[in-house]
Amino acid sequence: MDKHNPDLKVQFRYCLNGNLFNRPRSLSQLESAPDLEFADDAVLITPSRQAGDVALHAFADVATSFGLSVNFSNTKCTNCSVSADSISLPLSVHGHQVESVSAFNYLGSLLSSSGRCSAEVDRRLACAARAFGALQCIFRDKNLSIKTKRLVFSACVLSTLLYGGECWPILRRDEDRLDVFYHQCLRAVLGVSRQAQKDQHLSNADLRERWGDVTKVSDLLRARRLQWLGHVARMPDGRLPKKLLFAWLPQTRPAHGPRLRWKDRIVDNLKQLGVTDWYEKAQDRVEWRKISRMLSRPT
To answer: Is the four-CA dihedral 121, 206, 133, 220 of positive or negative sign?
Structure first.
């Protein structure tokens, strides 16, 4: 396989001009998406099933030449195109079947072929619920202060809940689900039942004030999203994440309500803060952190 063959790679254009949606073709550069490798994990990105078959055969052959082998039982393929007509067709490599799936777990996150993150939010909620349940001996201990419980919750439960969340193209309804889980946890730790909350006319804001942290999870997630935007913007121009931040595919977006993108949520957050020259401001890490934290302040 010729690794420089454009037919075997997904090609994208990018322009590092600080504009997330402007597509000046004359100033843009064309590049092929590389294979992603981390430790003993690898992701092969190809524009078609046929190209994926060729790439996977070549990858297995190269691994064999180094005395390595591919664990085909843990190898999955997925179709991320708009028309997922080949999603049920497995790949066959040297007599091994590679299962075709609609979602797969990569580096701790569930990646969906649809590009949505609702399944990952479900998974994060389940993981956080297990972590919260395992720490009941701490959260029910009356000898521990609320501050101590809050620190344990933040380190063990909240970090589990929001793992990778700064990269989610999350919908409003999924943000609401995160807030609902968060307030359920607060009621359990503070010993306030739903009925008691209703009888005492306590709002969720009142619960958060008792907890000592008035920030909602959805607001914290928005702040983290902007912090990640600034981190990528400060990367050297040759870094792949920065190129992809300002990249677009040659194909046009589908009509009739195309799916929400991560960049769409970013634009909403920037408009909410009234920030226009975000790229210049993001180069100052301290200043950008202050701007990002404005989203986590109570309104």
So the answer is: positive
pLDDT band at 88 (very low <50, low <70, confident <90, very high): low
pLDDT at residue 59 above 70?
A: yes
CA atoms within 13 A on the CB side of 215: 17
Q: How far is CA 268 from the centre of its chain?
A: 17
Are 150 and 172 spatial neighbours (Cβ–Cβ below 8 Å)? no
Instruction: Name the pairing type of β-strands 76-77 and 96-100.
Output: parallel
C-alpha distances in Å from residue 135, one per residue of 123, 157, 232, 288? 19, 9, 35, 35
Query: Tell me: the pLDDT tens digits for 135-151?
Result: 999 999 999 999 999 99
Measuring CA to CA, which residue among 204, 197, 234, 232 is closest to residue 219? 204
Tokens for 210, please give them.
């008792």
Contact, 69 vs 52, CB < 8 A? no
Q: Are 206 and 183 in contact (CB under 8 A)?
A: no
Instruction: Determine the 3-state secondary structure of 104 from DSSP.
Output: strand
